[in-house]
Amino acid sequence: MSKVIVLGAGMVGSTMAIDMAENHQVTLTDLSQQVLDTVKQKCDSLTISQLDVTDKAALQKTIKQFDLVICAVPGFLGFETLRSIIEAEMNVIDISFFPENSLELDALAKEKNITAIVDCGVAPGMDNIILGHYNETMKLTDFECLVGGLPKIKKWPFCYKAPFSPIDVIEEYTRPARYVEHSVVVVREPLTDCDYVDFDKVGTLESFNSDGLRSIIYTMPHIPNLKEKTLRYPGHVEYVRVLKESGFFSQEKIDVKGNMVSPLDFTSKILFSEWKLGETEEELTVMRVTVKGENAKGEIEEITYNLHDEYCKATNTSSMARTTGYTATAAANLFLEGLFSEKGVFPPELVGKHEVCFNYFLNYLKDRNVYYVKSSRIM
Question: Angle formed by the axes of helices 319-336 and 355-367, to 10°?
Fold first, then answer.
């Protein structure tokens, strides 16, 4: 039994802490005592402790008492928190999904002789792991990931509920989307190139450009075509584009009756109640990962993994927390079991390349009723 500390008691952080507490001594930390007390009521075996991760000295002193750190702080805090953890010479699993490039900390992690596995959620996360595995066994030409978290009940006009804060969702809608086409990095506007795609149990969804490739652009430069798109119910994109094109996502402050107001702050405030996911509100996660290339027999093969996961009524756990959090706790456990011990910063594709790790992830998730269904065809 190892001593594990989880930084961040939000939806995903609390889910990971409860999962890890089944086999380890777990301390869950957060800035908010109220949030910690709520999680403690769900899992009495957890130790809870208030901690401000921006207080570097307190953070480093606290984590030194543990065998492993799991970091689930908000994205805007993620990069500097990860740097502080590495400087403290602590091994870490990170799912803060910060906008900076985590590979910039690779040299520091090697110098400190520690392992940092980053971006270990559903996407980025399991899609990277699948890609990493097949990159070892095939000569790949194409990778595509279609992914989305959706409410079970559609409510007009947006037919959407955010499992995290609206401002983070809006950033997906404003940050330029990067793809790789014919070995060239292409930058496109988000919310463009909409396609309709059919999924079992859900029906037709619309996919659109978003900036989700992250580390894959740097770690898989030999694959000529790489693409990631977000999924929503049909109609969502049109309404969001109307807001965007009308200036509602602008950060430039405007004068409203003598008050300087950022349209983005105003929009986020309005959408917070419109998009807020209720604590027991049913939602689902849909993902389709497709890789294509030449297999060991010299055939052109296309392999697809489909995920359809729903809110768990038995544990009152959201699908997004399950599919994201359990991927990260799988990484934590395989590290603690000694199945991955390389030093440096590792996005999931560099862990999934090892067959034993790839199988560990799939089996760990399967044990928690998160299923990736594989199909393949010879082209």
Answer: 130
Angle between helices 56-63 and 75-87 (to 10 degrees): 60
Would you state the structure tokens that stand for residue 252, as one six-digit string?
A: 């430039």
Q: Are residues 115 and 22 in the same domain?
A: yes
Strand 372-378 to 300-310 pairing: antiparallel
How far is it, in rounded angstroms, from Cα 27 to Cα 49? Answer: 7
> Is the model's pLDDT at 336 over the cut of 80?
yes
In a domain, 377, yes or no: no
Residue 107: pLDDT band (50, 70, 90) is very high
Please report which confidence band the pLDDT of residue 329 belongs to, taking 50, 70 and 90 as the band edges: very high
Q: Are residues 165 and 241 in the same domain?
A: yes
Rounded CA-CA distance 63/58 in Å is 9
pLDDT, mean of residues 22-45: 96
182 and 292 share a domain?
yes
Q: 3-state secondary structure string, 240-291?
A: HHHHHHCCCCCCCCEEECCEEECHHHHHHHHHHHHHECCCCCCEEEEEEEEE
Q: Is the per-residue pLDDT at 24 higher than 80?
A: yes
With beta carbons less than 8 A apart as the criterion, state whether 140 and 134 touch. yes
pLDDT value of residue 272: 86
| Greater pLDDT, 271 or 168 | 271
114 and 133 in a single domain? The answer is no
Question: Residue 357 is part of which domain span?
Answer: 3-119+320-372
